[in-house]
Amino acid sequence: MPDPDTNLPSDSSRDIPAGPETQTPKSHTPPQANDASQRAVIIRTRGLKKSYRMGEVVTHALQGIDVELYRGEFIIILGPSGSGKSTFFNMVGGLDSPTEGRVFIDEVDVAQLNAIELAFLRCRKIGYIFQTYNLVQYMTCLENVTVPMAFAGVDADEARERGLELLDLVGLKERWFHKPIEMSGGQQQRTAIARSMANLPSVLLCDEPTGNLDLKTGDEIHKILRRLNVERGVTVLCVTHDHRLIGMADRIMWIRDGMIERLANRDEVTVEAGSIGGQENA
Amino acid sequence: MKSVEVKRQHRPPLRRCVELVLSGVKYRLFRAAITVGIIALATAFLMTMLSESVITRRVADALEAEVAPRKMLQFWVGRLAEPPNLAELSGTIARAERGGPRWNEMRAWAELNDEQLGQLHDVARRQQTYLTFFTQMTEARRRRALNGTRHSGPRMFGALIDHEASDADTARLNEDALKRMTDYLSEIGKPLPTSLDAFEGFLRDWWTTRAWRERVIAGHAEAIETLNQPGRLLHEREPLDVLATTDADALHAALSADAVGFRIQREDLQTVQREAAYAHDAQRIEAALNSSLLKARLAERRNIEPHEVNARSLLEEVSSSSGADWLVSLTDKARGLGGASLSTERIHQAALTETDKAAVTVEAARRGRLAKIVAGAGQTVAVHEPVAYLSESDAGVEAYLESLEADAARQAARPENVVPVVMTKVNTMSKGTIISWHAAEGDTVEPGQILFEMLPDTPPATDTAKTFRRWILRLCKPLTADQVAERFTSGSLGDAERREYRNWGELTDAQMTLLVKLPARTQSYLDFLASMTPEQHLDNYGAFPAADPAAALREALREQGVTLPLPGWMAQHVRFAERWLGAAVPQEAGYRLFEHYLDDRRRAPALHARIAAGHAEAIAALRGDAASDEPALLAERSPVDLLAAADEKAQAALARAEFHMGDKDLRKIQEHVGLKRDAERLRTLVTAPLLREELAKHRNDLSEDDVTADALMRVATDKAEAEWVNDLLGKVASLKPLGLTAERVEQVAERQLAARELAETEAEVSALTVKTGFMGFSARTIWLLVVSFIVCVVGIANAMLMSVTERFREIATMKCLGATDGFIMINFVLESCLQGVAGSIIGLVLGLVLGILRTALQYGTTALQQLPAVDLLATAGLSFVIGVVISALAAVYPAWVAARLAPMEAMRIE
After folding, report:
1. Cβ contacts of B2 on chain A, cutoff 8 Å
2. What's the Cα-to-Cα distance from B25 to each of B38, B541, B800, rounded to whole Å?
């Protein structure tokens, strides 16, 4: 259970601070702690830009992002709607290709990969967790979990064993035979987490994982994510509006108008919490 | 820093894919069912078409096999009836096998060798090619192409021959005509099926071999003629009857005799004979329909209108065993009815004649010895009076008769051993005249044996019967003098009778004239007397007294001053004389004439007696009683028979015995005899159970057992009833016993029905097979099939596209989880394939059932008996493959759309 005190009031996330915007156009390199340079970089972006063309209008979703994320980090991305955080998330997850710039995942240039290699990457290196869980409706809990294993070529018996293990991890072992429709939102999301862990990925990409859940179940999900992060050393990149996560994250990244507004360690943020809160509240 | 190795993504095994797809399909069962339905419909349509075509072809083959014997029969009936024409012959030659029966026949008929026949065969085959080519043109085009020929058969080629320059061995072609033909053919864009050279070669060969063909036809005609000669197989008989009824060996021998030369193999002959027997029997069964009674009965039995009765309904009825029994028993009941053709009037007259009982034969009622005949021929006896006695001893009878004689009251007791034979009473008669005895005294008679013939005294109803009756009497009963006098008085004395009397009485012309004129003279005096006034008191003399008192009468007349009239003929002369001479005829003349009359009157009875005696002598002469060289006419037959014979010999004999039958009497007697014969015919009709049945039904007062010949006669004396009888006879006309057993009737009817059905089916099938295009389908059907499959493809593609749209998130998620584009694509194609499999199986079962049902409806049971299982299975396989392939193809585009889906769609939140 996260400490309720660490959670900022949820309405505070809506605030758009005027100050930081002018302050951080060049803060591409993370202002990391000293030991950060020694840690392995899992995701690196270089001048990442993305623009969409919608009829005559060209929307610049990302306007050049340079960032390095380290193995084993728990990072949350905060930002208002339309800030480009989802686009960033897709780029990093190998789900979309950038207009300009590069994305390296485990030092592999995603842009260089063909469709089948990308599938390989998605299957084994990245785990995805969606706001809407995206479980396959006609499969049982266990089957859902073992789908990525099937794509990875794991044989059925081993897949079953590992699937049950993962379900045990999220506390659903006893319910492996349930269909998604028979489960609550929290249970579904836990299944989705188990599924994302199927092939022991390096990175977990979470897109508003608790967006459809109530506070209590949201907390459970957060705790599971954190546990995975800590126990399994999985890098977690979480796009969220939920300020409660700030207390769990190693680093927090604010994105606004396709730029990194701010990238800070948790302790910096918690120290500033009051002032930030005050600033935001002001 | 650790670098990550990126490899090609693993592809899950197909089994896993199938599992995945199946669970997906189960989840979206309704949509899958619709897709399956579309495929099932299209496949069912294809399968119906295919299976129908397959079954139809099989039915056509089976029909050919079944129809073959019938065709063979037709072939043989036809060729035994008349020789083929040129076109038919060409066909036969083209089909003939070297050394086969047709080959040998033609070789013998035309006296050709194998080489020549081979040449004919070759020409005939080539001819068929050209004949087909030209006959497929319209007639106008053909004429134009072939030098304006009017022929449509093989003779059309003659138009291209230069007849004047050609002879039997060489053919000169009409080059101009050929040139025009080739020009015309190229103009209308229909080139000859072969090169022009080949065609010209054919024309030359065709010309030079034509004599041989004619020889074959002539030989065939000669063979038929031989068979038609008296005593030969076909003499005045129909080929079908001959084939149906002749013994196989005899038939084979007759057909293949050297002078005839038909060649038929034993087994073919058997087939032909069997078919002929069926056809023959079928003809007989169907001939029963000529009777309207049968039609009416059949209509009643089948509960249809009489006008709906036709050969088919008859056959259907008798193809059941009860129906066959019915027909056989009905026709059997008509036994004895056939061929009776009488008019209503004739039936009526015959019945009247018959019921008159002009002459009745009396049969012995019991066994006994005929001891004494008391009433001989010509004697008249009252009803129930004895005419003869039966007794073992003559003496007993004599004694009894004497005692009767003695006993005035005729009450003498009859001894038990003397049994009288009495005059039978017929109708209302009171007396009967014996015509002749058929048994002689001393004979022993059996019950039922005819004893004598007699003539009842009831007056006959018809004119002819009167004449007949009179003649019988004349031939058996001598006239008395009084009767002779009466004949003269009657005034109806014909020339023939006058001649008879003159001869019988051996009278002179004067005596004869006297007798003939006497009645008229008597009448004129009687009239005169009757016209006298009462004052003249001559009433007493109204009737002539005996001869002598006439003198007294004359004196009385004189005293009273009565002028006696002149006879009519003389009165005219007198009036004539008075007018011219101006003088009255003296009264004395009247008296003189009256005296003459009275003299003649005195003489007449003696003459009458002479005539009567002469008549008796004549009868005796006929009977052979008197010594005569002539064979006695009436010795062996009764007068009735003699008259009934009415032949010339009898006439001559009668004339010799001075019986003269005038033309009028002769005609009447002949007519009477004819009526008697008709009556006899009517009597035999009653032996036909059908008539008894109908009569009993018609007359409520008669039960079937009551219907006897006499009853029929009585009924027919009524004119309306006679008409009914005549109607009935008309209705049953030509209904005669079939001479077949019920089983045979049933069998023949079944076969005939099957043959009819076959013929109908054959027409349908041949109409169908004529139109065959690709795989036996018409262009229209193929078009329908193609459209149906296009619709099917579009439908499946649409359903799959919707499925893809619905599953965007799922697909994108899968891609996020590592699914490759190929996997997604395979998944969708596989899903469609599985639906295709299900749909095709359903569709082909449905289509097969439909196809079989449709063909069964169209061709009846033939189709079901001939189901080609292997072919149908192959067809089913083909339909299955087509169904699956089509569904797979239809899914390719939707699958491609799905595969190209960007994985970030998974993030989309609706």
Report:
1. 40, 106-107
2. 16, 143, 12
Q: Minimal Cα–Cα distance from A176 to chain B, Å? A: 17
Candidate from B8, B12, B822 with C-beta closest to A120: B8
- By Cβ distance, the residue of B27, B812, B903 closest to A138 is B27
Q: Do B3 and A40 touch (CB under 8 A)?
A: no
Cβ distance of A138 and B24 shorter than 8 Å: yes
Query: What's the average model confidence in pLDDT over B589-612?
Result: 80
Tokens for A260, please give them: 């990194």
Q: Distance, in angstroms, between B904 CA and closest chain A CA?
A: 6
Chain A residues in contact with B909 by the CB 8 A cut-off are 131-132
The nearest CA of chain A is from the CA of B813 a distance in Å of 7
User: Mean of the pLDDT values across residues A68-97?
Assistant: 86
| pLDDT recorded at residue A197 | 92
**Run of H or E including A104:** strand A100-105
pLDDT at A2: 42
8 Å CB contact of A195 and B27: no
Cβ of A116 and B4 within 8 Å?
no
Rounded CA separation A192/B731 (Å): 99
pLDDT band, residue A193 (cuts 50/70/90): very high
Paired tokens of B892: 């390719």
Q: Which two tokens stand for residue B688?
A: 């036909």
Best residue in B11, B817, B824 for a mutation probing chain A (most A CBs within 10 Å): B817
Between the CA of residue B489 and those of B184, B472, B504, what are the distances in Å?
A: 104, 22, 18
Nearest to A139 among B23, B815, B906 (CB): B23
Nearest to B339 by CA among B726, B736, B739: B736
- Highest mean pLDDT among B326-330, B697-701, B712-716, B850-854 belongs to B850-854
Across the interface, of A40, A96, A123, the residue whose CB is closest to B9 is A123
Residue of B nearest to A152 (CA): B10
DSSP bridge partners of A252: A76, A264
Whole-angstrom Cα distance, residue B547 to residue B601? 7
First-last CA distance in chain A: 30
Rounded to whole angstroms, how far apart are CA atoms A152 and B66?
68
Reduce the DSSP state of residue A67 to 3 states and report it: strand
Spatial contact of A190 and A184, defined as CB atoms under 8 Å apart: no
Complex ipTM: 0.82
Q: What tokens were used for B731?
A: 């209705």
The whole-number pLDDT of residue A265 equals 87
Separation CA B210–CA B190 (nearest Å):
28
Query: Token digits for A70?
Result: 């380290």
Which stretch of A132-136, B217-221, B494-498, B777-781 has the lowest confidence by average pLDDT? B777-781
The closest CB to that of A108, out of B6, B902, B909, belongs to: B6
What are B194's two structure tokens? 């072969």
- Report the b/e string of B500-531 with b at 16+ CB within 10 A: bbbbbbebeeebbebbeebbebbebbeebbee
CA distance A72 to A42: 9
As a whole number of angstroms, the distance between CA B336 and CA B691 comes to 10
Mean pLDDT of chain B: 80
Topology of the domain comprising B359-458? OB fold (Dihydrolipoamide Acetyltransferase, E2P) (2.40.50)
The CA distance from B662 to B870, in Å, is 92
Backbone phi and psi for residue A108, each to the nearest 5 degrees, phi listed first: -100, 125
Beta bridge partners of A70: A41
Structural domain spans, chain B: 14-62+776-907, 65-279, 359-458, 502-623
Model pLDDT for residues B619-634, shown as the tens digit of each residue: 877 777 655 555 666 6
Which amino acid belongs to residue A170? Answer: V
**Closest chain A CA to residue B11:** A151
pLDDT score recorded for residue B776: 59
In angstroms, what separates the C-alpha of B765 from chain A's closest C-alpha? Answer: 54
